[in-house]
Amino acid sequence: LVLFIFLLFKSQIHTIRKKNIIPLLGTGMVVALHWYFFFESIKVSNVSVAVVCLATSSLFSAFIEPIFFKRKLLYYEVLFGIIVLSVLAYMLDVDTSYTKGYLYGIISAFLATLFTILNAKFIDRVDATKITMMEMLGGVILITLLLLFERDYTVFNSIISFSDFGYLFILGTICTAGIFVWMVEIMKHITPYSLIMAVNLEPIYSIIIALLIFGESERMTISFYTGSTIILLIIFLEGYLKSKYK
């Protein structure tokens, strides 16, 4: 709604081409599914598990980008992919209480990668604000249909507190719509892979902040932190090799 009002104020809402509407709505539905699985991962496990799984996005990108952009697959990408999957399997085997959290988190990471690569198709043809507004609308449509399918009407008939509304407003405008506009704009200057590599810093500060805010519920086993460190090292090593290769 905020982006719609902004485009309306700038008299740009009518300039969105009809041929781009369906593809942008579809891409928005992909990112909505990403959010759905990401929040579900947090719900059944915790923040640390969800963000560590999100760090696998760059490895998904390494395998998906060659398909979309018709480039060859690099041997070390396959090797690193096998290592990361092995580490995740080890972490799962050690602590089976978070199995669902890891599963939802990995699905979320795959969808985040797919969304970022699909977005790369539009950045040279459509303004970043228009892209984000249409994708947010696609997300709203999908989540609404999902809630109706599940017969969950609480979002339609429940009243939230003023403070919750404030937090949701900040989350929806600055932390979601605003950030997405900036991310799309940034993609005009860097590749999807580079953007995903930057996002992979998220697990580091998310785990630290989650520990400070939520305390004991975020404390994990040594095997989790060992596995997380290996995954992050692999991802940044891949980033270094990718830049050197280019």
How far is the first residue's CA from the last residue's CA?
41 Å
Low-confidence stretches: none
Average pLDDT, all residues: 82
**Record field, number of beta strands:** 0
Give the DSSP E fraction (strand runs of 2 or more residues).
under 5%
Shape: globular
Q: Main β-sheet, in a few words?
A: none
Structural class: mainly alpha
- Rg, alpha carbons: 19 Å
Properties at a glance:
mainly alpha; 246 residues
Describe the overall structure:
Helix 2 crosses helix 3 (47-54) and helix 4 (57-69) runs antiparallel to helix 5 (75-94). This protein has twelve helices and no strands. The radius of gyration is 19 Å and the shape is globular. It has 246 residues and is mainly alpha-helical. The chain is 78% helix and 0% strand.
Tell me briefly what this model is:
The protein is mainly α. Helix content is 78%, strand content 0%.
Outline the secondary-structure elements.
Elements: H1 2-9, H2 18-44, H3 47-54, H4 57-69, H5 75-94, H6 99-119, H7 128-149, H8 154-157, H9 162-186, H10 192-199, H11 202-214, H12 222-245
Helix pairs in contact: 2-3, 2-6, 2-7, 3-6, 3-11, 4-5, 4-6, 4-10, 5-12, 7-9
